[in-house]
Amino acid sequence: MAASISMPAAPSLETHAGLMDRVYRPQRHLYDLTRKYYLLGRDKLIAELALEADSTLIEVGCGTGRNLIAIARKYPKAQLYGLDASEIMLETARDKIRRAGLENRIHLRHGLAEQLSPRSFGVQDFEHVLFSYSLSMVPDWRAALEAGVAALSASGRWYVVDFADFGGLGFIGKRALTIWLKTFHVTPRVEFLSALEGFSGAIGELALLGGRYAFIFRSSPKLNWEICPASLWRADHSFLIKP
Ligand SMILES: C[S@@+](CC[C@H](N)C(=O)[O-])C[C@H]1O[C@@H](n2cnc3c(N)ncnc32)[C@H](O)[C@@H]1O
Fold it and tell me: Measured in angstroms, how far is the CA atom of residue 61 from the centroid of ligand 1?
């Protein structure tokens, strides 16, 4: 049996949505313009998704919908879903999706990543679950990942692109970036990254961007996993589950 680790309780939707709205209200119109310079790796991950026709994908923490719109254009038959805690970001996303004429293919909901439920979107499960620079903002990122994995179909895959540990950027670069991100309530999930570095071969592929600035993880299909992703964050790794 694994030792249980006590985790901080996730805030309620009301509390966390309020915080996210305060973070994003002043910046939402400049968000896409500015983030393209530092939320690196998103387009690479989208370009390499290789979705099957008619497949379903949810982006957890979809923000302004820029990734979902890019995915919808690249995969014209995919059905896409987006969940976000910030109503302010969702308002921008709805507007952009309407202007792109994609309302019939991209379905949005307000809610917490930690409580993701495919039923709230009227589906059984998703074939693909994407976290793009969201786990570093979700307070209980383990619960979010667990909910994402639970929402996958039997052959489903999950993907993460997010900040890495800045290990190749020197002491000052690392420190400056960490402090600056904190002002946006962003915390790179370094413990998750190091777990992935130890285990990724057993469930998927990990790629690091230059300077260990960001990482991209692509899981293999659920059917092929040799371990349960929950074991990635159990302190003693004793939760290894073979299929
Ligand atoms: C840095 S933005 C990334 C947006 C988008 N995925 C992208 O790549 O541009 C992080 C997003 O995660 C959302 N978020 C943060 N915590 C969340 C939570 N607990 N549940 C759902 N969404 C959350 C924020 O509101 C924000 O829209």
Answer: 3
